[in-house]
Design a protein that fits this description.
Shape: globular
Strand content: 15-25%
Mean pLDDT: 96
Largest sheet: 9 strands, parallel
């Protein structure tokens, strides 16, 4: 296989380990900052690396529209283009096609959609998605093309999307073939229906993938419904392969998912929240726009190892956000990514030391009411 997954310790269902790739090791549990358009918004790659991130996520939909996959390949691939020499996972583009494009049409063969930028027409097949990710962008971990339904979904709609995703998984695997330095992940679908999740997991394992993702969550179902699915969905997937929960989430979501056996995450929340004045801390989220921070000389969070967290007062950050200064967006984004990396590091340590349940209880007490 193009990657190996070594589980160093378990504590209940929670695991910690190392996912080894050709471009470096990924410590798990791992949070992948989202670099939608070949950039983690507001940050340089050096700032991102300083937070402790081992891997980034790139977005196939946005990159295929701009600057374009063939141009990206001529420029040396995504790693060289954005100056990031560590691993990159790319999503398939399917979720953005369904959620962002003005018009999309799904058939057995492909999804046809209109660009949200200029309305131009595009066709994305499982084979084309693999080609863009693996051959044009040069990502280290490639995702199959799938169909993600919105929530709530009627059973018939969820089953049809799951079955189509399974057929597209087989086509994605055939297009990907055997590669020495790149890996392919399959995506479990089935909405909130346990038997559909089981069917999806079984079909993916029959095909065989380097890792397995849990898709179709964080689409409006809420924290409690998500956790109900995670009570059974992760353990349907192979224990010796990484499990990736797509598009999640708030810090409490990460903790609850790790407790249920998930290893990898991505979400735009920390960068988006930072640009809008919200910071995540060990005591929960705070909104720096609030007037109560106008003369608060305390640092944002002294327990997060990041200059943005330790070296600037909340009063200064409040001023920057209220004045709509670019630096405010940069510092809060930098802090939030650093907090997420500190959180995953703390979870790795808690699992390794056999105290994850106590860590989870303490974290829930501080965050669930916020």
């Amino acid at each position: 296989m193009a990657l190996t997954f070594d589980i160093a310790a378990t504590d209940g269902r929670a695991r910690t380990g190392v996912l080894k790739t050709a471009r470096g090791d990924i410590r798990t549990p791992a949070f992948m900052p989202v670099g939608t358009a070949a950039t983690v918004k507001a940050l340089t790659v050096d700032q991102v690396a300083q937070t402790g991130a081992d891997i980034l996520l790139g977005n196939t939909y946005h990159l295929m529209l701009r600057p374009g996959p063939e141009r990206m390949q001529r420029l040396g691939g995504l790693h060289r283009f954005m100056r990031w020499d560590r691993p990159i996972l790319t999503d398939s583009g399917g979720f953005q096609v369904m959620s962002l494009s003005g018009i999309s049409k799904v058939t057995e063969e492909a999804v046809t959609f209109a660009s949200h930028i200029d309305g131009s027409k595009h066709v994305l097949t499982p084979e084309r998605s693999i080609e863009i990710q693996a051959d044009r962008l040069g990502s280290d971990i490639v995702m199959q093309l799938d169909e993600c339904v919105s929530w709530p979904a009627e059973r018939a709609r969820a089953e049809a999307a799951m079955q189509l995703s399974a057929r597209w998984a087989a086509r994605s695997k055939a297009a990907f073939g055997a590669r020495d330095s790149q890996a392919l992940f399959g995506i479990q679908q089935g909405s909130t229906f346990e038997d559909l999740r089981r069917q999806s997991a079984d079909r993916l394992q029959d095909i065989g993938f380097d890792g397995y993702a849990i898709g179709g969550l964080a689409v409006g179902e809420g924290h409690d419904a998500m956790c109900e699915v995670l009570d059974y969905a992760p353990v349907m997937l192979p224990a010796d392969r990484p499990r990736y929960l797509m598009g999640v989430g708030k810090p409490i979501d990460l903790v609850e998912a790790v407790w249920r056996g998930v290893d990898m995450f991505d979400c735009v929340l920390p960068t988006r929240a930072g640009r809008h004045g919200q910071a995540w801390t060990w005591d929960g989220p705070i909104n720096l726009k609030n007037a109560r921070f106008a003369e608060d000389q305390a640092p944002l969070d002294p327990d997060v190892p990041c200059p943005a967290s330790q070296d600037y007062s909340r009063a200064y950050l409040h001023h920057l956000i209220r004045a709509d200064e670019i630096l405010g967006k940069i510092l809060l984004t930098w802090h939030n990514i650093a907090f997420y990396q500190a959180l995953t590091a703390a979870m790795r340590a808690a699992v390794a030391e056999g105290r994850f349940e106590a860590f989870r209880r303490d974290f829930r007490a501080r965050h669930m009411a916020k």
